[in-house]
Amino acid sequence: MLRLIETEQVADMEAIIRSYLSEAMRYAVKGLKAPKDTTQPGFPTERVDALAADPEMAEASDNLTRGRAKAMSLT
């Protein structure tokens, strides 16, 4: 996964981005699906500490769908 924060990073990472796109196009031509990402999202230390301090919030966080949990880790 690439995380681009500033537009200058796109030019700096052009070769990597093109490589990823080429791989995705090869998968599409062959009719293959990309390998499923099974990694658990990592949370910032502040979030982990906040959830440790509030059991009710921790339970709500544990009940999030995988997609929502991943989205929360990106913010």
Specify the biggest β-sheet. Answer: none
User: What ranges have pLDDT less than 50 throughout 5 or more consecutive residues?
Assistant: none
Shape label? flat
The radius of gyration over CA amounts to 17 Å
Q: From the helix content, strand content and strand pairing, which structural class follows?
A: mainly alpha
The pLDDT mean sits at 84
Q: Could you tell me the strand content as a percent range? A: under 5%
Q: Count all strands and give the number.
A: 0
| H/I helix tally | 5
Distance between the termini: 15 Å
**Helix coverage percent:** 55-70%
Order of helices and strands: HHHHH
Describe what is shown at a glance.
This protein is mostly helical and 75 residues long. It contains 5 helices and no strands.
Question: How would you describe this structure to a colleague?
Answer:
With 75 residues, the chain is mainly α. 64% of the residues lie in helices and 0% in strands. The chain is built from five helices and no strands. It is flat and about 45 Å long. The chain starts with 7 loop residues before the first helix and ends with a helix.
